Amino acid sequence: MSVAAIDPKHNVQTVRQNFYDKISKQDMAPLWEVLRNVVTKEPKSKASPKVWKYDEIKKSILEAGELITPEEAERRVLVLENPSLRGQSRVTNTLFAGVQLIMPGEVADAHKHVSSAIRFVLDGEGAYTAVEGEKANMSRGDFILTPNWAPHDHGNPGKEPVLWLDVLDMPTINHFETSFMEHYDEKAQNTNRQDGDSLDRYGSGVLPDGQIVETYAKRSPVINYTYARTRPIAERLMKAGDIDPRHGARVRYSNPVNGGHVMATMGAYLAMFPKGFKGEDYRSTEGMIFVCVEGHGSTKVEDKVLEWGPNDVFVIPPWKRYAHTCPEETVLFSISDRPMQEALGIWREGK
Ligand code: GTQ
Ligand code: FE2
To answer: Is the CB of 116 under 6 A from ligand 1?
Structure first.
């Protein structure tokens, strides 16, 4: 039946529905029925804001420590699942977050994959992550990179359980359907560079005099940004009054070769807030994962208030309006998918 054949005496809806049913058999559908859902006026994140309390995380992951070994698990990680995206192993639509535990004497074998990872150390001393032949010793507040396809393994020769937050871009890698992974025969890779070598070598105001710009165009050569070095810089900004009304005294972890984000998919920040900070409203298209490192406070997200303290992890989905309040001096670490959005020219911010 052609459109011209619509008889006004017939129900237009019925005629259209018959047409939709007919073209459906040819795997076609009318855009006009869904256009407003596929091209929304503004971002409508399916994710929800949420805080994971550290005491609950720690209790559960220590319990997991008695249930499964890292050999069996490959990685002993509890996934922080966004309550609106259950079963999808994601904290936002683009990022994965989880908390990993490695007990004294344990190792997590060397492997590599397309997904990039960051680790933010929450608790315990004495573990390491080895990345591309370099060991990064893990202390609370350290920020460690595992760029895509970089071999990595973890170990804990110390005496305490060590816990850290993992954030990976795997939902995005899987969105592109580009995931590869390989295991190694050896449990741990040979480390052929001094511990902490990359931070000294690349993060001290000098660079090796060679062709490094292309090698490190999409990822920082530094694998361990220590809290011992980064915190005093945020503090220096705060004391100098260099305080953003939304973000506090915030530094961006950067690639020393080109000043860009540390990786192509994920960017990170450390912010210090003075006692009594009352942030202005802010929103942006990136999904944000925060960790409270010191102090405590609350974040108003639209009509919700998230209360958080040390090692609590909280998530703010894209384009949700939020503002932080800090009754005492506070430090927040954060990570987001902003570099991907900037690369595509789609990142936006607003009030
Ligand atoms: O430590 O290598 O949380 O490969 C998820 C995937 C951690 C890791 C995760 C991983 C790892
Ligand atoms: Fe991994």
So the answer is: no
Task: Write down all domains in the chain, each with its CATH number in brackets.
Answer: 3-38 (no CATH), 50-350 (2.60.120.10)
Q: How many helices (H) and strands (E) does the chain have?
A: 8, 23
pLDDT(304) > 60:
yes
* Dihedral sign (CA 216, 265, 271, 242): positive
Q: How many CB atoms lie within 10 A of CB 177?
A: 6
Non-local (6+) Cβ contacts of 123 within 8 A are: 58, 140, 161, 162, 163, 164, 311
Closest CA to 105 of 175, 30, 162, 182: 162
In sequence order, what are the residues at sequence separation of 6 or more whose Cβ sits closer than 8 angstroms to the Cβ of residue 290?
A: 299, 308, 313, 314, 315, 316, 332, 333, 334
Residue ranges of E strands in 43-160: 50-52, 77-79, 96-102, 107-113, 117-123, 128-131, 134-137, 143-146, 152-155
The lowest-confidence range among 48-62, 199-213, 217-231, 330-344 is 199-213
Model pTM?
0.95
Contact 274, 294 (CB under 8 A): no
Residue 70 beta carbon below 6 angstroms from any ligand 1 atom: no
The best mutation among 57, 71, 77, 101 to test binding of ligand 1, ranked by most ligand atoms within 8 Å of the C-beta, falls on: 77
240: Cα separation from own chain's centroid = 29
In angstroms, how far is CA 37 from the centroid of its own chain?
27
* Residue whose CA is at the smallest distance from ligand 1 atom 11: 75
Q: Would you say the CB of residue 95 lies under 6 angstroms from ligand 1? A: no
Which pLDDT value is given to residue 256? 97
Which amino acid, 157? P
pLDDT tens for each residue of 229-248: 999 999 999 999 999 999 99
61: phi then psi, degrees, rounded to nearest 5: -75, -30
Q: Rounded to an integer, what distance in angstroms lies between the CA atom of residue 290 and that of residue 54?
A: 13
Residue 188: pLDDT band (50, 70, 90) is confident
